[in-house]
Amino acid sequence: MKKDWSKLGIMGGTFNPIHHGHLIAAEFVRDEFKLDEILFVPSGKPPHKHAGEIASPEHRWMMALLAAGTNEYFSVSSLEIDRGGESYTRDTILELKEIYGGRGKGDFYFITGADAIAEISTWHKKENLPEIAKFIAVSRPGYKLDMDKIDPLFRRCTYLVEVPALAISSTEIRERIRRGRTIKYLVPEAVEKYIHKNKLYQEV
User: Fold this and answer.
1) Boundaries of each Cytidyltransferase-like domain copy (predicted)?
2) Is 82 left (phi over 0), alpha (psi -120 to 50) or beta?
3) Is residue 2 situated within a structural domain?
C-alpha cells in the first residue's frame, strides 16, 4: 500500500481465478478516475457462491499476488481471508478505512461488475454503504446497465464504466481447465503455471 494517496480503488471479488479481464478493468478504471492505487481483495467466504466451486482462499490470494505483481499501482490484501467468516462489502470498506488513514480521510472507490451492482439491494447492511464509499460498476462486453435499474439509494454514488476488455470469465476458465483446454493468454502466465502446478479446478 502506498503511503501517499487520496483516492483508493478497492476491487473485491472471488478471483476464482483472477484473469486478464480483472486486470484490464482495474487498470482502465485507475486511469479513468485517476486513482492512486488499486487494492485487490480476494473474498474469504463469498455468501453467494457454492463452496465446492471455489479454490481455497490461500490459492486465490496467491494467484492475485502473482497477477498484480507486475503493476506498480496494484496491491493485494488478505483482509477478508484473515478475518474469516462470510465476506461483506460494508465490513471490508470500514476496516480498510481504519487501516489506511482512518475515517473521513481519502476517497474509497469500490469496483465491481455491473451485474453485481444491479443486485446491490440484496447486499448485507446496504443502508450506509453510500456514506462510506463510491461505487464503480464495470460493464462487460455486451452487457449494458440502465442507471434506473440500480437501487435509488446508490444512484448518486455509482459510476457506470464501459471497459473495452476481452469477454473473459472465471467460469469459462474453470470449465476449460476441466476439459483439458488451454487457458494461455486468458490469465497471466504466472497464474497459469500456478494453476497447473497445484492442479486447481480439475475436478468436476
Assistant:
1) 10-176
2) alpha
3) no
For residue 202, tell me if it sits in a domain: no
Residue 166 lies in a domain: yes
What backbone torsions phi and psi does residue 183 show, to the nearest 5 degrees? Answer: -120, 10
User: Cell match 503493476: residue?
Assistant: 71
Alpha-helix runs per DSSP H in the chain = 20-32, 57-68, 79-83, 89-99, 114-117, 129-132, 170-178, 189-197
- How far apart (Å, rounded) are the C-alpha atoms in residues 142 and 37? 28
pLDDT digits over 1-18, tens only?
A: 555 568 999 999 899 999
Residue ranges making up the domain that contains 109: 7-197
The closest of 6, 67, 73 to 42, measured between CA atoms, is: 67
pLDDT for the residue 101: 66
Q: Is the pLDDT of residue 204 over 60?
A: no
Task: Output the CA torsion sign for 186, 44, 54, 133.
Answer: negative
CATH code for position 65: 3.40.50.620
Q: How far apart are CA 191 and CA 109, in angstroms?
A: 26
pLDDT, tens digit, 9 for 90 and up, residues 65-87? 999 999 999 999 999 999 877 77
What does the pLDDT read at residue 60? 96
